[in-house]
Automatic annotation (TrEMBL):
UniProt entry tagged with the keyword Transcription regulation: yes
Record's keyword terms, sorted: DNA-binding, Transcription, Transcription regulation
Organism of origin: Micromonospora auratinigra
GO MF assignments: DNA-binding transcription factor activity; sequence-specific DNA binding
Membrane-spanning intervals of the chain: none
Domain called HTH araC/xylS-type: residue spans: 191-293
SMART domains: HTH_ARAC
The keyword Transferase appears for this protein: no
Alphabetical list of Gene3D superfamilies matching this protein: Homeodomain-like (1.10.10.60)
Protein name: AraC-type DNA-binding protein
């Protein structure tokens, strides 16, 4: 097995600020904060290994083998060697993502690899438990792990991620394809509308109302709400809650961050009790415990 994923990760990403979080035989974990002057398309990015792109904050576009995907804090994008990847930042730079890169030899040893190897990339969404595991992995790797523990944690995380991958009719968009009879022009228009709404919400301060979001994407609130539900499988409210909880997790990762009452006001919650209720519903833990988990990185979250 190769001793490492070859080369400098900065040669295989869009311009940005890089931090290598961990490296062991056949795997490399790093994070990128994109810094670009031109919001247009950049690429293609050479793809030498199998990659997992996990959004952490902000929003960007990724064109994988000609198909454009919106990448935000709810997103996961898988690619294979030989895939052609381009990136764009139409709303400006500053988005942050984690990238896990694996050699084909390492991945081929996993019994669950067929979920990835048989497909030319996967545009999907990770649930809140997987996202928390992702952030815990980043926090612990940044704090320092030996090679043995790093390798074990990455394999465990990858197993849970692949087990959660959507297959077939359960993927986002399946319901809308049935509803509109698979008319290509309608499907494309509806997906573009939903993607535009995702971009607006990801770039907002979470204080925009539904009417304001609809106005920015050029649709009525009713039409946008109905199409978004069909395309993504979730309501605009549910998606907005997912985005703002993931955004505030970055704040909770700072042990010296603002008090929870201030966090609640900043992210548009009615009060601290509302913040606690929504975060517990989304992630399974109250904000105070998440602050301890993400800032200290010294305990596993309990099983759901």
């Amino acid at each position: 097995m190769p001793e490492r994923v070859g080369g400098d990760p900065r040669a295989r990403t869009t311009p940005g600020r890089w931090r290598v979080l961990g490296i062991s035989p056949g795997m490399l974990l790093y994070q990128v904060r994109c810094v670009v002057e031109d919001p247009g398309w950049h690429g293609p990015v050479p793809n030498l290994g199998h990659r997992v792109y996990l959004g952490r904050s902000g929003v960007s576009l990724r064109r994988l083998n000609g198909e454009v995907n919106v990448v935000d804090a709810t997103s996961v994008l898988l690619s294979r060697p030989g895939d052609e990847m381009w990136a764009a930042h139409p709303l400006g730079d500053g988005d942050v993502y984690t990238c896990l890169e694996l050699t084909p030899e390492l991945l081929a040893e996993r019994p669950d690899a067929a979920r990835w190897l048989d497909r030319r990339g996967w545009d999907g969404s990770v649930d809140e438990r997987i996202d928390l595991e992702h952030r815990m992995l980043v926090a612990r790797a940044a704090a320092g792990l030996d090679g043995f523990e790093f390798t074990e944690r990455v394999h465990r995380f990858l197993g849970r991620l692949l087990a959660a991958s959507p297959i077939g009719a359960g993927e986002p968009g399946a319901e809308i394809e049935r509803a509109v009879g698979r008319r290509p022009a309608t499907l494309v228009a509806h997906r573009r509308l939903a993607d535009r709404a995702r971009e607006v919400l990801a770039a907002s301060d979470f204080r925009l109302g539904l009417t304001e979001v609809a106005a920015q994407v050029g649709a009525s609130p009713h039409h946008l709400s109905r199409v978004f539900q069909r395309v993504t499988g979730q309501s605009l409210t549910a998606y907005r809650n997912r985005l703002r909880v993931r955004s505030l997790l970055d704040v909770l990762a700072d042990a010296d961050g603002p008090p929870l009452g201030e966090v609640a006001a900043t992210y548009g919650f009615a009060d601290q009790a509302h913040l606690t209720r929504v975060v517990r519903e989304q992630v399974g833990h109250p904000p105070a415990r998440l602050r301890r988990l993400l800032s200290a990185g010294d305990a596993e979250p309990e099983a759901a």
